[in-house]
Every structure is written in structure tokens, then in C-alpha cells.
Amino acid sequence: MTQSQKDEIDFTALPKIELHAHLSGSISRQCLHEIWLKKKAEGKTDLEDPLVVMPEGKHDYDLKTFFPLFSTYTYRLIDDAWSLRYSTLSVLRDFAADGVVYLELRTTPREMPAAGLDKEDYVRLVLDTISQYEAAEPPASGPGMMHTRLILSVDRRNTLPEAQHVLSLAEKFHSPDDRNVNVVALDLCGDPSAPDIYKFAPVLDSRAPRRRLIPTLKTTLHFAEAECSSSDAELSTLLSWQPDRIGHVIHISQTIREAIVARGGGTDEKRPYGLELCLSCNVHAGMISGGFEEHHFGEWWQEKDCVVVICTDDVGVFGSKLSNEYALVAHHFGLGRAEICALARRGIDVIFAGEDEKARLREIMWT
Ligand SMILES: CNc1ncnc2c1ncn2[C@@H]1O[C@H](COP(=O)(O)O)[C@@H](O)[C@H]1O
């Protein structure tokens, strides 16, 4: 694609779907800085300025330096109701300003003991903030309001009882008719070096007895993110849980690839996987070898038996908005306007919201 063809697409105005965004990782450094300034002035934090800890322009966090950012910094700064609301609102505004019309935000329920909040309070606060945002901030112009749904994450480092608690929260805040902002799915995320994901089957296997009671609750799994979490044994187990979508999909063997494609091409149950691919994150974090041209998006995007959705993962850390991810695929893989619009629209098939939302998106997304 030449520069002039690329210029014909306004990637920010392009209505987009974001399906793989971690709440805490999507908070901009500016927002963290604003929260820090207020807490510092009130004598409520002894943390360093986030703009010093994570300087603007630094995006080369690898999997060893990335996860501690949360435990050593973000979670210590966002530790009460005010900062959780403030940061959630800021994340919603940032996605909407970037032309996202449908967002699935994911987060790991976290207690905030100093503020007297338990994990249920955390989830309720995030859902309330989303509902209030949707009620209060209709767009001045553009294709339409951004609608958001929530996914609750199980962290690979969790114990089974902790994961079961996340499922209880999902059961509580899921609404099968999808009329309101609600919890639509469970996710498995966290440091891929944490072993023993097999224990999570009672929570994440869609055929587990508790999950059968709530069939409209969906599942997405971080999948083959690092070599240490990509044995055929682990990946076959994850697929046997029948997730609806899988994220990253980097270190896979031919056998696993064929298994992924087979479900979309199957005749009995033709249910193509949604593949949540995160280019900048994978390149900046060194999760793939090589640059953007080598990203496995190139191998997957034309695969008819899967639905590829490009996503940001942690825009606050890796610094690339969804509009920029689309510009990157146009540039590095030569997608023209029609292909970009088709790529963005195809995501509708694998969102976790109900038919009303899908119909709205079919109306407003570009053809
Ligand atoms: C590199 N890609 C990734 N792979 C795996 N897990 C990731 C991730 N990016 C983020 N997280 C998970 O999301 C949490 C932060 O958001 P929440 O506090 O849940 O909103 C991190 O602690 C990590 O467990």
C-alpha cells in the first residue's frame, strides 16, 4: 500500500471493535500522573511520579519487566474507589476518542483493603462507572456511542478457590439477556511462566458443571503467549475447554494450528475461533522474533475459518492506540481500504454481547 492510499483511510474515524484490553494496562501515563499528583498533594502516596517510573515513549517492556509494573506500581497507586473510578473513566474516554464503538474491557477482580473494598465492590465499581459513562457522555458527533462489556480475568497465579471466586462474581454480574452493561466472559491471563493451569478446569472449561448452568457466559484464554506456556499438552487442554476466543496465539505447532482451523471449518459445529492479535505488544515486548512484518497476523488474517480481531492489550504500557494498530497492519501487510473495513467488521461475529448489539454494529461500521 502506498502512502497516498494509506492516507485515504482515517483510522481514528474508522469505527472499531476492541476485544482484548486489560483495564489496568490501558490507563495512560498522563492519567496515572494526575492520580499521583492528587494523592501526593493529600499525603496519600509515597510512590514516585509515574512519568519517572514509566517515562513517556518507553514501550520496550518484556515479559520479565512488564508484570511487576502492576504489583509494584499501578496496584499501589490505584488503591481506592476514587482512583479506580477516575482511571476507568479515563480509559473509556481514551478508547471512545480513538473511534472505538464497542469495547470489551477485562480486569482481574482485586481487593483494596486499605479502602475497605472487596473484590465484589471492585467489580461493581467498574460496572457502575461504565454505566454512568454511557448514560452521561453521548458523543457529540461520529458513528455512535461506544458500548462496553466487562470480562473478568483469572490470573494464572491464582489458586483454584480464587478462580472459583472470580466465577462467582461473573455469575452474579452476568445478565443472559445482555440488556445492560454486564460481565460477559471469563479470561485466563497473567504471567505465562506460572505453571499448572490444569487446576482451573472447573472454572474455565465450558463443559464444567458450574459453567453448564450459565451457558451464555463466554470464555477467552491467553494462548501460547510465551514458549514456556506453549506445549502441545497445555494448548490442547486449553482448546479442550472450548473457549470462544483465544488471545495472542504465538508459539503454536502445526498440530495446534490445524485444531484451531478445524473448528471453524467443521460441519457439525461451525464455530470459528476469534483470534485476538496484539501486534505492538508482541513486537515491543519481544514476544515474537522480528518486527511487524514477521508478526503472525500475516499468516492468519486471510484464514476463513477463524476471525482475526486486532487489539491493543495494554495501550497504557505499549503506547499504540487501536487506530495505530490498524495503520500498522495497513502499512506492513498492504491492506487497502476495503480489506481494513472488512477486517474491522468481521469482529462483530465474535463479540460477546447479544444480537441487538451486533445489529447496531452492523449498522454503524464501515463497509
Ligand atoms: C502481555 N500481555 C499480557 N499477558 C498476560 N496477562 C496480561 C497481559 N497484559 C496484562 N495482563 C494481566 O492484566 C493485569 C492488569 O490488568 P487488570 O489489573 O487485570 O485490569 C496484569 O496484572 C496481568 O495479569
From TrEMBL:
Coiled coil: none annotated. It catalyses: N(6)-methyl-AMP + H2O + H(+) = IMP + methylamine. One of its GO terms (molecular function) is adenosine deaminase activity. One of its GO terms (biological process) is adenosine catabolic process. The keyword Ribonucleoprotein does not apply. InterPro entries: A_deaminase_dom, Ado/ade_deaminase, Metal_Hydrolase. Residues 15-363 form the Adenosine deaminase domain. Keywords: Hydrolase, Metal-binding, Nucleotide metabolism, Zinc. The keyword NAD does not apply. It holds the Pfam family A_deaminase. Its cofactor is Zn(2+). Belongs to the metallo-dependent hydrolases superfamily. Adenosine and AMP deaminases family. This is Adenosine deaminase. It comes from Echria macrotheca.
